[in-house]
Design a protein that fits this description.
The complex is a heterodimer of chains A (257) and B (270). Chain A is 37% helix and 23% strand. With 257 residues, chain A is of the alpha/beta class. In chain A, a hairpin with a 6-residue loop joins β9 and β10. Chain A starts with a strand and ends with a helix. The mean pLDDT of chain B is 91. In chain B, α6 runs antiparallel to α8. By secondary structure, chain B is an all-alpha fold. Chain B is built from eleven helices and no strands. The chains are: A alpha/beta (257), B mainly alpha (270). At the A-B interface, β6 of A face α7, α8 and α11 of B. Chain A: Keywords: ATP-binding, Nucleotide-binding, Transport. Chain A: Pfam families: ABC_tran. Chain A: This is ABC transporter. Chain A: InterPro entries: AAA+_ATPase, ABC_transporter-like_ATP-bd, ABC_transporter-like_CS, ABC_transporter_ATP-bind, P-loop_NTPase.
């Protein structure tokens, strides 16, 4: 269970470049939920994610994961960053990249390798272990980053605009990969995106943020028939209706200011 | 493929051709001038061969003189270089990891680095006396700066997302340093080491010119010009040039191996 209460964050407080990123944000995410957070560009989505991950300490309010206040990164939390080319380590082979976080779990070398290979297979990269990240396409690199998170067996996976820098076809494949991952593994997923269609297609629930300083302006359940499919789901009347509603919520606030 | 090989062959040929032309011009000029101070290269090479490379085959043709002088020079250089590299990387990492320490000490270090090492030679003589200890300390002090400052710079400019990733997956501090910071800094560390390598040859020879030395290429140079043995002096100079060139080439080969990921990744980005 992830609970965010009255979260507020101000960058450079009191200074000339003061930026109020988040203002009194409340949010609860149940175990096993796939929540998409959508909002206009620069609205503080990444700040929110970084607060949940314990990478920054918010200036106000609190984040709790399983009733424990987040001060550093909680146990069993993994993050997939948008910029795969800067989050994978270029000096390590793909398999070593995926196996890296398993050191903390006290796995020996053989067990790390086996777990990394299994995770790579689950994202469709069984053959790529010995390669280096720069030898793979962008979409494949992001799969490696997802495999790294999966091998870690998190209970909470945060994804920060994970498909923002890949082409449309790859993006659809990766969206389906997330749905597949959710089906196979028991975990809570919080996916941040600025793509309205993506949020409705992937999420069980979509939370819409206002422009900065961010707070919640909409919270919708996505009750679409499963399994989801890139063609039939997207032409389903409920999908069309939901995406319009999310779109209005996102846009409504950008126009009003 | 054959086009590439052809280009390579032509490039090599033109390089060697230029070298041969330059040496020929040198030979011709010095022979015409006939000055005792500038012996022709053929004389120098003959002297080099006689002094160092006419030994028994089982000792790789090295003469007693080579074993007594060239090897000690290389030994001092290697010892000083290893000491300076280890010290420079260790201190550089410590400095680069602490923004406060870096801010406080950066000015002091730039100041220390700017002092030409030969100017401090008296200080080293007073502290260490004549001999090997002083020579090693002097070489280490001279070469540690480029390694230290480059390492600190590299350790400071690690990609923030790499550090975030290490933080999210809760790597220990030791793991973050050895698995993330050190490899990130490696390209800059190698740049520093390359400077240190060429500097170490220079300061080794300088240390051997000092009184209290009984062997080494620098010592042979002192003996040669104090006895007006000009071909021997030129032989020493030429040997130092060749050593510097070969060591640098070997270093580049090692660097290409260790930093293969870096060069390939950069090629892809460009």
């Amino acid at each position: 269970m992830l609970e965010i209460e009255n979260l507020t964050h101000i960058y450079g407080g009191g200074g000339p470049n003061e930026h109020h990123a988040i203002d009194g944000l409340d949010l609860k995410v149940a175990d096993g939920e796939l929540l998409c957070i959508v909002g206009p560009s620069g609205c503080g989505k990444s700040t929110l994610l970084r607060s949940i991950a314990g990478l920054i300490s918010p200036t106000g309010g609190q984040v709790k994961v399983d009733d424990v206040l987040v001060k550093q990164t909680p146990d069993n939390l993994a993050v997939v960053f948008q910029d795969y080319s800067r989050s994978l380590f270029p000096w390590m082979s793909v398999a070593d990249n995926v196996a890296l976080p398993l050191r903390r779990k006290g796995f020996d070398r053989r067990k790390r390798r086996a777990a990394a290979q299994e995770a790579l297979e689950s994202v469709g990269l069984a053959e790529a272990g010995r390669k280096y990240p720069f030898q793979l396409s962008g979409g494949m690199q992001q799969r490696v980053a997802i495999a790294r998170a999966l091998a870690y067996r998190p209970t909470l996976m945060l994804m920060d605009e994970p498909f923002g820098s890949v082409d449309a076809q790859t993006r659809e494949d990766l969206e389906d990969l997330v749905l597949e991952v959710r089906r196979l593994h028991q975990m809570t997923i919080v996916l941040i995106t600025h793509d309205i269609d993506e949020s409705v297609y992937v999420g069980d629930r979509v939370v819409v943020l206002s422009k900065a300083p961010a707070h919640v302006v909409g919270d919708l359940n996505v009750a679409l028939p499963g399994p989801r499919d890139q063609i039939t789901t997207r032409e389903h009347p409920d999908f069309v209706h939901l995406r319009a509603e999310v779109g209005r919520l996102v846009r409504g606030h950008t126009v009003a200011h | 493929m054959s086009a590439v090989m052809g280009r390579l062959a032509r490039a090599l040929a033109s390089r060697w051709l230029l070298l041969i032309l330059l040496v020929a011009a040198w030979e011709w000029g010095t022979t015409i001038a006939g000055s005792a101070f500038f012996p022709p290269p053929s004389t120098i090479v003959t002297r080099m061969h006689a002094m160092w490379f006419s030994g028994p085959p089982e000792r790789l043709f090295l003469t007693d003189l080579a074993v007594e002088n060239v090897l000690p020079s290389l030994g001092r250089m290697a010892g000083g270089l290893a000491g300076g590299a280890v010290l420079g990387v260790a201190l550089g990492l410590a400095l680069g990891l602490s923004a406060k320490a870096y801010d406080y000490l950066d000015g002091v270090l730039q100041f220390l680095r700017a002092i030409p090492p030969p100017a401090l030679v008296t200080v080293f003589l007073v502290v260490f006396g004549f001999g090997l200890r002083m020579q090693l300390a002097f070489i280490v002090f001279s070469i540690v700066w480029p390694v230290l400052l480059n390492t600190a710079d590299g350790a400071r400019s690690v990609e923030p997302l790499h550090l975030n990733t290490g933080q999210v997956f809760r790597l220990s501090r030791a793991q973050r340093i050895s698995l993330i910071v050190l490899p990130s800094a490696l390209p800059k560390i190698f740049a520093g080491l390359r400077l240190a390598l060429s500097l170490s040859l220079i300061v080794t020879v300088f240390a051997e010119l000092l009184p209290g030395t009984t062997n080494g290429i620098g010592f042979q140079l002192t003996v040669a010009y104090s006895t007006f043995n000009l071909p021997a002096m030129w032989a020493g100079i030429l040997l130092l040039g060749i050593l510097g060139y070969v060591l640098n080439e070997l270093f580049l080969v090692a660097e290409r191996r260790v930093l293969a990921w870096h060069h390939s990744a950069q090629r892809v980005e460009v």
